[in-house]
Amino acid sequence: MSRRPTLAWFYCLLLVAVVIVTPARAGMSQGAGAPVSWEVSPSEQQFLAGIEAISANQLDEAVGRFSRLSQEMPDFRLANLVYGDLLMAKAAPLRGEGRSLLLEGGEAAPLLDEARSRLTHWRERPVPGTLPVELVHLSPGQARVVVVDLAMSRLYLFANDGDVPRLVADYYATVGLNGAGKFREGDKKTPVGLYFVTGEVPASRLTAFFGSGALALDYPNAWDRRMSRTGSGIWLHGSPLGQYSRPPRATEGCVALTNPDFSGLMRLVGAGTPVLIAERTVWQSVDSWRRQRDLFIG
Fold first, then answer.
1. DSSP states along 230-252
2. For residues 132 and 283, what is the distance between their CA atoms, to the nearest angstrom?
3. Rounded to whole angstroms, how far apart are CA atoms 179 and 278?
4. Helices 42-55, 7-21: crossing angle, 10 deg rounding
5. What is the pLDDT tens value at each position of the chain, 298 positions in all?
6. N or C, where is the chain less crowded by C-beta within 10 Å?
7. Beta strand spans in the chain (E)
């Protein structure tokens, strides 16, 4: 009988593929070991460190990390499946059809998409001291701004610290099932543009599907209406209770975070906070950003 690779080894190959295939963005990619100076979900850090341990053939280290992660986040299905496969790989090589759920049937694609999204971002995450090109200017009264990168399935939170915005948090996000560029109601796309939070919708007023709550956005805004775009109810919100995360593209057009991440975001963001949604965020040095800002404000 032929030997079939386990999920753990599949992820090792996926990690290598991400490094080789994914192009660096304007020379701004950095190694997985490089530190960051902003908040990243502890569970995501643990997951990525476990995958790195697999790629370095440090199976005991990987098992330990995924064991802790499965205890801390029992609803993190992707991490739990990797952990289970690691345990089976240590016990005996899988043969024949194997038992790895991700290597069988229709469950493979969404979980592999999530893993690929997380790994790609980790390899291309922003270099400290860079800012999005799309974030042109903040007025003094805007304490924070949210930037959503739809292509990378990430949500970034910036603080307005005077002269230059400061990146304070970086979260994995789920966006519209059909990608970017909402035009009509029901197209399952996430709008691209500048929006503002109109208010908080507490979890007590929502079904369990929205998890820890929601922040409503002003889509369609005046520009959307001028462009004949239709639809409504575009929110930032949590994930269904009992489900840690969702695939990168799975919503009706909203932007969804894990519940721990969304709870953290709600403590810092409220009505009036700008939310800049871009199809793909481009990062530039602070000096370049300042020149762009100065040209913009005259």
1. -----EEE---TT-----SEEES
2. 4
3. 11
4. 90
5. 334 445 555 555 555 454 444 444 443 445 444 556 788 899 999 999 998 888 888 889 999 999 999 999 999 998 988 888 888 777 765 443 334 444 444 566 788 889 889 989 988 899 988 999 999 888 888 899 999 999 999 999 999 987 899 999 999 999 999 999 999 999 999 999 999 999 999 999 999 999 999 999 999 999 999 999 999 999 999 999 999 999 999 999 999 999 999 999 999 999 999 999 999 999 999 999 999 988 888 7
6. C
7. 39-40, 130-132, 144-149, 154-161, 164-172, 175-176, 193-201, 214-217, 235-237, 249-251, 255-256, 274-278, 283-285
Enter the pTM of the model. Answer: 0.87
d(CA 82, CA 58): 14
Q: Count CB-CB contacts under 10 A for residue 184.
A: 10
Distance CA 16, CA 238 (A): 31
Residue 107 CA to residue 214 CA, distance in Å, equals 28
* 56 secondary structure, DSSP code: T
Counting Cβ atoms within 10 Å, is residue 212 exposed (0-12), middle (13-18) or buried (19+)? buried
The radius of gyration computed from the CA coordinates of the chain, to the nearest angstrom, equals: 20
- Give residue 188's region: left, alpha or beta (phi > 0; psi -120 to 50): left
Q: How far, in Å, are 16, 130, 160, 193, 232 from residue 166 at the CA level?
A: 31, 9, 6, 21, 31
Phi-psi region at 193: left, alpha or beta (left = phi > 0; alpha = psi -120 to 50) = left
